[in-house]
Amino acid sequence: MSALKPFFLAIGFAVTATASQAASCSDTGGRYEAWKPEMAAEARAEGVGERGIAALMGTSYSQATIGADRNQKSFRYTLDKFMQVRGAETIIKQGRSRKAKNAGLYDALEQRYGVPAGVLIAIHGMETAFGGYMGDTNIVSAIATLTYDCRRSGFFRPHLIGALKLVDEGSITAKSVGAKHGEWGHTQFLPGNALIYGVDGNGDGKVDLNNLTDAMASTANFLRQKGWQPGAGYQEGQPNFAVIKQWNAATVYQQAIAIMGKRIDG
After folding, report:
1. Does residue 211 share a domain with residue 116?
2. In this structure, are 217 and 259 located in the same domain?
3. Are residues 214 and 255 in the same domain?
4. How many Å apart are CA 187 and CA 130, to the nearest integer?
5. According to the model, what pLDDT value does residue 4 have?
């Protein structure tokens, strides 16, 4: 996978399924249309409104999402290989420049949430090449497909409910696009996490993770809510490294973010 493309599960572990699943899963797309009304009934019972239900019923089975979910090679690389493939040196170089140009934003975020610029910028660079590629896959269809698919249905189901509620509140629409797993915005939030941790950073009255300020504030808020200790270190063995693990479960990803963040912060 190119260093310019987002990869698996920007934020994967904040939400877990809370309701028993009646809607049946499948390893193929053959029952997808029959599954949608089953899932819609469950979603309605969990408080999803008519706009969200309509978005679910308008989805289609995403073979591109299933293909991406079955092909995540970079997480098996060594750290050195992973950083090379993901373009770490470019992220560090551009990250330092972005920090200097947006010093006011990152200073304000660190003052409010305690998360230093380097970590936020490293995540931003790793996930979407600083917004250069935020995806081209329908968010609701991607999350619905992964919920329907048996492999990790329980993991993705809360994110589907989250996506439908985001449609209800107008943060996204039935046509909004993101990455192959339904991740949204500059730092690739899964919808359930966007619903919980999303922040209106620019004060315009809505959470829009395609907006840089909202996305950076939301990322900082997620890390702080997951236990980030202001002023504590974030390298391996230091207190805040455990919080980076909450963002992504892959060890090489965690290590890369810590290394790049430190170099960006200088």
Report:
1. yes
2. yes
3. yes
4. 8
5. 31
Q: Are residues 101 and 116 in the same domain?
A: yes
Name every residue whose Cβ is closer than 8 Å to that of residue 71 and which is 6 or more positions away in sequence. none
Do both 168 and 205 map to the same domain? no
Domain extent, residue 56, equals 29-70+138-181
| Same-domain status, 38 and 122 | no
Contact 191, 9 (CB under 8 A): no
Q: How far apart are alpha carbons 40 and 57 in whole angstroms?
A: 7
Its pTM stands at 0.88
pLDDT in tens, 10-40: 444 344 344 444 678 777 778 999 999 999 9
Residue 201 resides in a domain:
yes
Domain harbouring 249, CATH code: 1.10.530.10
